[in-house]
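debug: dumping io for the single-chain case to check the tokenizer round-trip. Nothing else runs in this session.
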Amino acid sequence: MSVIGPFGLSVRDRTLEADTQAGLAAVEEGLLEATKSDVPFITEAAQHLVRAGGKRFRPLLVLLAAQFGDPYAPGVVPSAVVVELTHLATLYHDDVMDEAEVRRGVPSANARWGNSVAVLTGDFLFARASHVLADLGPEAVRVQAEAFERLVTGQILETAGPRGRDPIEHYLDVLAGKTGSLIAVSGRFGAMMSGADESIVNILTQYGERLGMAFQLADDVLDIASDSHESGKTPGTDLREGIATLPVLHLRQQAEATGAPEDRELCELLAGDLTDDARHAEVLRRLRAHPALEQARQDTLRYAAEARSMLAPLPAGPAKAALEGLCDAVAHRAG
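debug: decoded output
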């Protein structure tokens, strides 16, 4: 048994392990090749986050989905490169919008070179993803275009805010666009490029959408619940930055519904200056003990369970077991 990919996914089949390890190595080569430029500075900026590492969750899903057809088909690895390049490009843009200073343990591109370079480097990565995509055929271009539209729509919705809608429904729509869409495409590309049956392509697309939601919501829970660096960030980072994640939204909903003084007081603390360490620690302590955190955890587990249930029609085997293992790993992250 070997451990590969994000969250320590266990792979118990030697052939699948070898295929996946070889595929991920080929994806790394493809990412470095796709981010080269005749201008050395552009290469440096474009490879900044590639070389910083990352879970490679999306390429891993492409490779596992391809096991339901021909995993060695020529379009599998390039499609995995496309989804990871697209993801990386969004990180450059997100860091500008969030004014982030660190990404994957290194200074963000905007902190190192300024906002303009970071935005343009993200655009460069989108262009290179499109270049790779063009060789995969018009259907792949259409699938990617639709996913990119959803991704941008999610970002716009987040920026605009609920505007009278239920905040939790709005938040879940944002996550479906920003995170679920590209992870859904990862499952779709892997199955599609491997020549799997259309029914399997659809199953793995729906699976990816739900797994992506669970993946992001687990991070929401970890930001509050974890004392470690499991989420890749210092606990309470989202709170300190004023980002209202699902546990906070559940708290606000409960405070409004019940009017409980302790809930209203916690909401007031959240609305205050959380750059103050003592205030931040107090909010974190109280949120960890609040039912809103458990409610968010249950939402996460529900999406992970839905993702797992989508796999039921697939033939039994190591690839299906690995995909089920991803659901279990996400659920484990949420506690």
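debug: round-trip ok. The radius of gyration is 20 Å.
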